[in-house]
């Protein structure tokens, strides 16, 4: 029983880390997309 609990805790920690990394990547992608869109608009205007 103890081993199972430890495994579940470890897997939960791994899932949380992966989720955090994915969220950060998504945020970075969104910000990059906004910057690229703004840059394209500026280029089109000029």
Brief rundown of the structure:
This protein is mainly α.
Q: Can you offer a commentary on this structure?
A:
The model has no long low-confidence stretch (mean pLDDT 79). With 46 residues, the chain is mainly alpha-helical. The chain has one helix at 2-45. Helices cover 96% and strands 0% of the residues. It is built from 1 helix and no strands.
Low-confidence stretches: none
Query: What radius of gyration results from the CA coordinates?
Result: 20 Å
Choose one word for the global shape.
rod-shaped
Distance N terminus to C terminus? 67 Å
Strand content: under 5%
Question: Topology of this protein?
Answer:
Elements: H1 2-45
Protein name: 50S ribosomal protein L18
Offer a few descriptive terms:
mainly alpha; 46 residues; 1 helix
